[in-house]
Design brief:
The protein is mainly α and about 500 residues long. The protein has 2 domains: about 150 residues, no CATH class; about 270 residues, no CATH class. It contains 18 helices and no strands.
């Protein structure tokens, strides 16, 4: 059930009305039933995997708490943590990485002249499995570290893992935030209601007006690479950076808005990432829930920056290589992650040289021009890595990179042929106008201007004018129509 589908637009109001109609003590039961129904709309059988992950991490929490109460040796607690991770990650490996492992093993066997292995089954990747698995595992670690109490009510804990707004594509919530909110009732708040709906409207704008429109051009080029050249590759790659941002940020904002309507506060998942002045800063602003997950549960346990510069650089590369693999069972994803890690390592190594050059050239680091230059360089590096993320294979990605570096027709961007890539001149102009709105909104947020607060301070006629115009803009200029097929959010595949 997609957020921008008719099914969800019928499902969500019913859930909200019933949520506030029933007694507070029973509301979590209603949300749990609604969340499992939401997930089962994709594939009812895979709800068993969600239940499996929930049960394993719930029991691991009880076992760890038992060790604390009985003052058992630390090794016992570590054993239960290891069992929880192994049992959850084994399911993730089976559904997401088994075929990838077999393909690479077969390639190695062929190189050695040995017989290949033929898999006996093929499994469909359950939607959102990487997200809810990591969310459940974070609870195990939080209980182990005594950062959160042990939840003894299985059904409340099950809702924490399956909460439908953020179930299939995040943000990956922490038990310290979401689990505590589940344990307290939420009274209806008009302020939460209108702020939640405004967030959802903004998320729909990013997804339906921008991301799905840009997808026409991006998919046209990347879907038939060998029919195009470097100029088209460059345009499609730049627009893909905007598409995936609006697609994923749009989902996270709709999820936060839907949760807020019911009184829940989800963590912020994006913070103007394309205004970042370094790749390291970009990753502090992009997919914050996953980046912080890897920081807290992988980077810091590996030693973080506490064991010297070399170890720190190794830890950064490990985290980003694993992050690439988390995104997909392809070498192109691993290279994408590796590039983002490498950019940070090189950036850190070159920092003294950059500062020295800045002093010699009398560069004012906080000047507007220098900040824009840094943001532009960061965008170029990040967008270069996005090529490996978007391309279907590693070979396709290398072909795109080669084409971009051998462009022969710079007039392509001015001679009108740009409108033959899936978007007419009107559609392309609308996409540009919408991206300017997005850039303005992100710039104000980056400058610590809270647009929603400013809007809600206005007179009622002004507020409702914005509400109506915004809603009509999404309805009129969103990607709809008889031939429209709701585009699944990009991150659903992870």
């Amino acid at each position: 059930m997609l957020f921008h589908s008719i099914d969800f637009l019928m499902f969500f109001p019913i859930v909200v009305l019933m949520y506030y109609a029933i007694p507070k003590k029973a509301r979590y039961l209603w949300l749990l039933a609604a969340s499992y129904f939401f997930y089962m709309c994709w594939n009812a059988k895979y709800a068993m995997l969600l239940l499996y992950s929930t049960a394993i991490t719930y029991l691991s929490g009880l076992c760890i708490d038992w060790c604390d109460r009985k003052k058992k040796p630390l090794g016992w607690k570590k054993l239960f943590v290891a069992m929880s991770f192994c049992m959850n990650l084994s399911i993730l490996f089976l559904f997401k990485y088994f075929d990838f492992a077999i393909e690479n093993l077969n390639a190695l066997l062929e190189t050695c002249g040995l017989a290949v292995i033929t898999p006996g089954f093929s499994l469909l990747l359950p939607v959102g499995i990487s997200f809810y698995t990591f969310q459940a595992l974070s609870y195990t670690m939080d209980v182990y570290r005594k950062d959160i109490y042990v939840e003894r009510n299985f059904l409340k804990y099950a809702l924490f893992v399956s909460f439908f707004p953020q179930l299939v594509a995040g943000p990956i919530e922490r038990s310290k935030n979401l689990l505590k909110q589940i344990s307290c009732g939420h009274s209806f708040s008009y302020e939460n209601f209108r702020r939640g709906l405004l967030l959802m409207l903004w998320g729909y704008f990013q997804k339906i007006v921008i991301a799905d429109r840009l997808a026409f051009l991006v998919d046209t080029v990347y879907g038939d690479l060998y029919s195009y050249q470097g100029e088209q590759y460059l345009l499609a790659s730049v627009l893909f950076a905007i598409q995936i941002y609006c697609d994923f940020s749009g989902y996270s904002i709709i999820a936060a808005g839907a949760a807020k309507v019911m009184g829940f506060q989800l963590m912020e998942n994006f913070d103007c990432p394309y205004f970042a002045r370094s790749v390291a800063e970009f990753w502090r602003r992009w997919h914050i829930s996953l980046t912080s997950w890897f920081r807290d549960y992988l980077y810091i346990p590996l030693g973080g920056s506490r064991k010297g510069a070399v170890r720190r650089y190794v830890n950064i590369m490990v985290v980003f290589l694993v992050s690439g693999l988390w995104h997909g069972a392809q070498w192109s994803f691993v290279i994408w992650g590796g590039l983002n890690g490498l950019f940070q390592v090189v950036g850190s190594l070159c920092q003294p040289l950059r500062k020295k050059a800045g002093r010699l050239l009398q560069v004012k680091e906080e000047s507007f021009g220098h900040r824009c230059f840094q943001a532009l360089v960061t965008f170029i590096l990040v967008d270069f890595a996005w090529i490996f993320f978007r391309a279907d294979t590693l070979g396709d990605a290398l072909h795109v990179v080669g084409g971009i570096f051998t462009m022969q027709n710079p007039w392509f961007f001015m001679d009108g042929s740009i409108y033959g890539l899936g978007l007419s001149q009107k559609q392309f102009s609308l996409a540009v106008f919408s991206m300017l709105i997005l850039a303005a909104a992100d710039w104000m947020k980056h400058r610590k201007i809270n647009v929603m607060d400013r809007l809600l301070e206005q007179d009622i006629w002004c507020r409702w004018l914005v509400y109506i115009v915004g809603t009509l803009f999404v309805l009129v200029f969103g990607v709809w129509g008889n031939a429209y097929d709701a585009q699944a959010f990009v991150y659903f595949q992870f």
